[in-house]
Write a structure and sequence with these properties.
The complex is a heterodimer of chains A (about 450) and B (about 130).
Chain A: H1 26-42, H2 47-65, H3 74-93, H4 100-111, H5 116-119, H6 122-136, H7 143-154, H8 159-166, H9 170-185, H10 196-218, H11 225-243, H12 251-264, H13 290-303, H14 311-324, H15 333-346, H16 350-364, H17 366-375, H18 386-399, H19 402-415, H20 419-439
Chain B: E1 2-9, H1 21-40, E2 44-49, E3 56-58, E4 62-64, E5 75-83, H2 86-94, E6 104-109, H3 115-128
Antiparallel strand pairs in B: 1-5, 1-6, 2-5, 3-4
Classes of the chains: A mainly alpha (about 450), B alpha+beta (about 130).
Chain lengths: ~450, ~130
């Protein structure tokens, strides 16, 4: 089972008469599985056709189940309907002989009276989903397209839902998807599971997309927490699929899984009851989800294999340090600083530099943190980044420079779209005013 | 207690956006809640969807395919419930999720006189005469 990121006891809906419950996101996830499966039959160049067939099978499921609840095995039900629809489509089109081999394949499976669950073996489902993951996370595509494609094909999101999730217009999502599909279908081997060296290379690209997808949910400035959680859950689900596969379960895959789980464990604790952001320092650690932390740590352990050290390992290591600290004050900052130093060596990034500076401030005081920021060349190009200003504001506030702190907080507030971030920053600006009032 | 039939017309998801998998999920869960609610009150008897095509048979064994009403006028399915009055039945129907997608519910009482009721009526008539 994919680790459940939902907080608290699962809130399942009470169901119909003698019916089984639909799991959360049943339609979304089954759609994605079926599209992958049918794409194996139709070929990647007919991705749209597979999507259409699946869409209509799902609609039929809904129309059938409304009045009496879903059947005992809803997944098998939709498989059967989708397969029959696929056969209809193929037969209609096979007059052009284009699909003759595919029809033969499906017909043969049916002709021998094979039960459905033999036709779609679990391994076959996994395999086709894996192929689809590799196809969508193709480094020839721009990252923004990979994410849109992953959400559409791997996660079953609609265009409007993708647009809402990524805070872009529907028409730009449509454009991205259209171009991405065109590029994909033009590549003959896009739908293969690569092997050998090619696997390592393509796997890198898959990790990157899943990492971006997770970050999109975890760190985005999206006003809607539900959407953000959805994106994180999807990234974890897909990464879990990779980790279940013998060849794809590399140390990097496990490290990425660890990284996601160790962050996801703290998802709920980041917000107060009014939806305001709580900084690590102020979070109630009792609200961190211990089972997720335990799973994350287990993946991190398992990722320490061979001599691979990726930035996922180091980022997961940092997250683990935070998760293991009994309190903010008792965090092992020097250990975290060491991990950041390593991280910046193999994976330099402005955001990494900024986070390192925050750690430096924890160890050597706010002034040292400010100097670390001023000395980091990469941060000079980060003028638009609100967290840079917010961090400088915080460090100046701690050093007693209230005027500079206020200016930074105000600047940060003007650069973020997130309501809860803005609220936090306004609180900070007020905090800057307090000493002034006391002094006056 | 009397039998009532809900006949459902329309309420279908059409275009891609209406029918996104997550929208389907949310809509389906509402139907499940509604049915669960009727089940809990022990008034739900049965429900089935109907195929979206059919035949007309008229005198002389004439079988025809149409004319079909538009999708929104077709009966898409039915649910049978047991409540005491038409008012109760319509109250239950008001909670149906079908209206989200422009569907309607026709509520009809099933005229099924029990043999007991018939006997009572006959006795009453005999008593009067």
């Amino acid at each position: 089972m994919t680790p459940d990121l939902q907080a608290g006891p699962a809130t399942k809906s009470p169901g119909g008469t003698a019916t089984d419950q639909l799991v959360d996101h049943f339609f979304r996830h089954e759609s994605a599985k079926l599209v992958a499966l049918l794409t194996r039959v139709f070929g990647l160049h007919h991705l749209d056709l597979a999507e259409d067939v699946v869409q209509s099978a799902m609609l039929q499921a809904l129309e059938t189940w409304k009045f009496k609840g879903p059947p005992k095995d809803p997944a098998a039900w939709v498989y059967r309907v989708a397969r029959n629809r696929a056969l209809d489509v193929l037969r209609r089109r096979s007059t052009a002989d284009k699909y003759a081999p595919d029809v033969a394949w499906l017909e043969a499976a049916r002709g021998q009276g094979q039960p459905l669950d033999e036709l779609v073996l679990d391994t076959e489902v996994h395999d086709s989903q894996l192929r689809m993951i590799f196809a969508c996370c193709d480094r020839e595509l721009p990252p923004a397209s990979q994410i849109a494609l992953a959400l559409k094909i791997l996660c079953g999101f609609s265009v409007a839902e993708i647009a809402r999730a990524l805070l872009v217009s529907e028409s730009s999502v449509k454009k991205r998807l259209y171009r991405a599909k065109q590029q994909l279908t033009a590549r003959p081997n896009a739908f293969d599971v690569p092997d050998g060296d090619a696997l390592a290379d393509r796997l890198d690209s898959v990790h990157n997309v899943l990492y971006l997808l997770f970050n999109e949910g975890y760190n985005s400035q999206h006003p809607d927490e539900l959407i953000r959680r959805d994106l994180c859950e999807e990234a974890v689900r897909l990464c879990h699929q990779l980790s279940e596969h013998a060849v794809c379960c590399s140390p990097a895959t496990r490290a990425l899984m660890a990284l996601m789980l160790l962050h996801a464990a703290r998802f709920d604790a980041r917000l107060d009851s009014d939806g305001g952001i709580l900084l690590l320092e102020d979070q109630d650690r009792a609200r961190w989800q211990r089972p997720l932390i335990a799973k994350g740590l287990a993946y991190l352990d398992a990722s320490a294999e061979g001599d691979t050290l990726t930035h996922y390992h180091l980022e997961a290591g940092i997250a683990a340090q935070h998760c293991l600290a009994p309190s903010f004050d008792r965090t092992d900052w020097p250990a975290i600083l060491g991990l950041y130093d390593q991280l910046l060596r193999i994976h330099p990034s402005p955001v990494g530099e900024l986070n390192r500076a925050i750690v430096v401030a924890q160890i050597d005081g706010p002034q040292a943190g400010i100097e670390a920021i001023e000395n980091a060349a990469s941060l000079r190009h980060l003028g638009h980044y609100h967290l840079l200003d917010a961090t400088l504001g915080e460090l100046h506030l701690r050093s007693g420079n209230c005027d500079r702190a206020r200016a930074y907080f105000e600047s940060a507030s003007s650069k973020t779209r997130s309501l809860s971030e803005r609220r936090l920053l306004v609180r900070k600006v007020h905090a800057c005013n307090v000493p002034a009032i006391l002094a006056g | 207690m009397a039998g009532f039939l809900f006949l459902f017309r329309g309420g279908l998801m059409h275009n891609e956006e209406e029918g996104s998998p997550e929208a389907m999920q949310q809509h389906m869960v509402k139907w499940q809640h509604w049915i669960a609610d009727m089940t809990r009150k022990e008034i739900y008897v049965a429900g089935e969807p109907l195929h979206d095509t059919g035949k007309f048979v008229s005198s002389g064994g004439v079988v025809s395919d149409g004319p079909f009403p538009e999708a929104k006028e077709m009966v898409a399915g039915y649910i049978a419930i047991n409540v005491a009055t038409m008012d109760e039945a319509t109250e239950v129907a008001k909670d149906c999720p079908i209206y989200e997608y422009d569907g309607v519910v026709e509520v009809r009482e099933i005229l099924a006189e029990t043999s007991e009721a018939v006997e009572q009526a006959v006795e009453q008539e005999l008593a009067v005469s």
